[in-house]
Amino acid sequence: xxxxxQFRDLLAxxxxxxxxxxxxxxxYEESLGDRSREEILAGAxxxxxxxxxxxxxxxFCEDKSLSGLSGGFSKKVMDFQNSPQAFMSxxxxxxxxxALATLEENSRMRKIVACPTxxxxxxxxxxxxxxxxEKDLPMERLEKALLAAGLVGEIVSHRMYxxxxxxxxxxxxxxxxxxxxxxxxxxxxxTPEQTLNATAIALKNTIGLVCDPVAGLVEVPxxxxxxxxxxxxxxxATMALADIVSFVPxxxxxxxxxxxxxMMSPKLKESAEGGLAKTDTAVAxxxxxxxxxxxxxxxx
Length: 300
Ligand code: SF4
Fold this sequence. Notes:
Elements: H1 7-16, H2 21-31, H3 37-59, H4 73-80, H5 90-107, H6 123-134, H7 139-157, H8 164-167, H9 173-187, H10 192-204, H11 222-241, H12 250-263, H13 280-294
Helix pairs in contact: 2-7, 3-5, 3-6, 3-7, 4-5, 5-6, 5-11, 6-9, 6-11, 7-9, 9-10, 9-11, 10-11, 10-12
The structure holds iron/sulfur cluster.
């Protein structure tokens, strides 16, 4: 069985074969022995279809979540792209809106693809489905891009739990951003070095990101944070494709994330005891929500 516990092993494999990170991910999955190459690619295609379906159902839906904290944001971004004030490209608008749509569907308790978690589930679908629709990329390239993203997440998961409760949001939206950066580079045909540099550059900029959700719900800041992260991943991918190299190698970036996660206060790890969760607005909202739950409206 092929094993990649460190990114340096993955890079050495890709250089030796030679092959892309997505191809290495495909061979790794094949080496697990329970699926053929065709079945693995079909599985990736199925996940991409589900991502697209989640985005389609959420994109123009204005229903609020049960808490009322989110809903309707993705439609606003799609509408805004027709404004004379719009300054980003159609691709970038889609990346933002698609990530928002996915998280809004998550807040409505509908079906999403967790990648790597529900809290970070908008970033990889946002960039991949936007690229799928805006660029004429072969489907196998997109499937391998998703596999590359998955392998990046898996290698990080050998070192840290991918959970806000364990290491803050750097382990959720942060890792999703690194995965999305790798997916973009793979999708447009970058080299393995560029793919892993994109991930390193993206992750370096999310180190220390805390998990401080208002009322303990995966909505504020999570929904809009996903909307931002695809653009963050795109910037990292663009730098890497332009052959900008991360000064700190990717494995050491992950070491730093692990260390920062261990140093982070438990108040900033999904406990809603610090940060945004303890602002006056959040505390007042949390109290209102508690009272509503204790005194639900009568229904005859
Ligand atoms: S802030 Fe916390 S709950 Fe929200 S996405 Fe990040 S890790 Fe998940």
